[in-house]
Design brief:
The chain has helices spanning about 5-10, 50-55, 75-90, 115-120, 145-150; strands at about 15-20, 65-70, 100-105, 110-115. With about 170 residues, it is α/β, with parallel strands linked by helices. It has a two-stranded parallel ribbon. The protein is globular and about 60 Å long. The chain starts with a helix and ends in a 21-residue tail after the last helix.
Length: about 170
């Protein structure tokens, strides 16, 4: 029995906002109403969705990151926070106990957020490792090929994935 189903079976009003389960329809029986997810576009800049040069190369994903000149509630997690606060205010008025699950999408590719959050960091001070060889005694689980990242535009399909593999757009 999942946590939300347990609560619902014991008299709670249960709600799901965001990415609580991988697929929004997973565990429908455990929710008092249909799960909600924000419906914002992934990118603020249309050219970042799938740059033309990468459409020709068969890439299905856009840029791996974006610093959008947008308000906090443009991207999904900002919308999710606003909706969660509004929902919580409404649930607080109910006599019935409630269980509110809020699942954020970040950190997850693509790494998109409003510009002020990127401006907090001096990327010139971010140091890259001297070597990309497998560390001695590193567990297999720690080593991977960055397959998901490689599906995004401007990321090398092979070779080392580093800050030099992507165009940081002045960042």
């Amino acid at each position: 029995t999942t946590l939300n189903t347990h609560f619902k079976n014991n008299g709670y009003y249960t709600m799901s906002l965001g990415k609580v389960f991988h697929h929004p329809t997973d565990n429908d029986e455990g929710w008092s109403e249909k799960p909600w997810r924000p419906s914002s576009p992934t990118y603020a800049k249309a050219e970042n969705a799938i740059p033309d040069a990468h459409k020709r190369k068969g890439r299905r994903r856009g840029m791996p990151f974006e610093a959008g000149d947008v308000a906090d509630d443009f991207y999904r997690d900002g919308q999710l926070t606003g909706h969660a606060l509004e929902t919580l205010r409404g649930l607080a008025q109910k006599e019935q106990p409630f269980f509110l699950a809020v699942g954020y999408f970040k950190p997850h590719l693509p790494f998109v957020s409003p510009t002020p959050y990127w401006d907090r960091y001096d990327f010139q001070r971010v140091l890259l490792p001297d070597t990309y060889h497998r560390p001695k005694n590193a567990p297999d689980a720690a080593i991977h090929t960055w397959g998901e990242l490689r599906a995004y535009a401007r990321v090398a399909r092979t070779s080392v994935v580093s800050g030099k593999s992507v165009d940081l757009g002045g960042r």
